Amino acid sequence: QVQLVESGGGLVQPGGSLRLSCAASGSIFSIENMGWYRQAPGKERELVAAITRGGSTNYADSVKGRFTISRDNAKNTVYLEMNSLKPEDTAVYYCNANVLSLLSGWYSYWGQGTQVTVSS
């Protein structure tokens, strides 16, 4: 089993910044994609940003130009730098990783989530 642990969430004023981190641990042979999703109450979970092992990135239109995703493969860690935060960014943010296991093959794992609240 693989565990993903997020950190860095909290309360911030509009226009402020936060940096989220997600570290993967456990029986990891390889990680291809890592990403961040978010979900607000009553809304569907949506992709925020994703990054491949080689560094290719993809962003939701709503965060493009404000958020930056990066990763450290040696640490099995993915980051999300969030700038110019807006109230509509308020949500629980979930880390996701597509992990290769020697016996079970590829499987998608989720973190427990970290709350991000943007409010005056």
Task: Describe the secondary-structure layout.
Layout lengths: L1 E6 L2 E3 L5 E9 L3 E10 L6 E6 L5 E3 L7 E6 L4 E6 L8 E11 L3 E6 L3 E5 L2
Parallel strand pairs: 2-11
Antiparallel strand pairs: 1-3, 3-8, 4-5, 4-9, 5-6, 7-8, 9-10, 9-11
Textual characterization of the structure:
With 120 residues, the protein is mostly beta strands. Helix content is 0%, strand content 59%. The protein contains no helices and eleven strands. The chain has strands at 2-7, 10-12, 18-26, 30-39, 46-51, 57-59, 67-72, 77-82, 91-101, 105-110, 114-118. Strands 2, 4, 5, 6, 9, 10 and 11 form a seven-stranded mixed beta sheet that branches. Strands 1-3-8-7 form a four-stranded antiparallel beta sheet, with no helix packed on it. Strand 7 (67-72) and strand 8 (77-82) form a beta hairpin. It is elongated. The model has no long low-confidence stretch (mean pLDDT 95).
Sum up the structure in keywords.
120 residues, mainly beta, seven-stranded mixed beta sheet, four-stranded antiparallel beta sheet, 11 strands, 59% strand, elongated
Number of strands: 11
End-to-end gap: 40 Å
Which class do the helix and strand fractions yield? mainly beta
Q: What low-confidence regions span 5 or more consecutive residues with pLDDT below 50?
A: none
Main sheet properties: 7 strands, mixed
Q: How large is the count of helical segments?
A: 0
> What's the shape?
elongated
Radius of gyration: 14 Å
Average pLDDT number: 95
The amount of helix comes to under 10%
Strand percentage: over 45%
Order of helices and strands: EEEEEEEEEEE
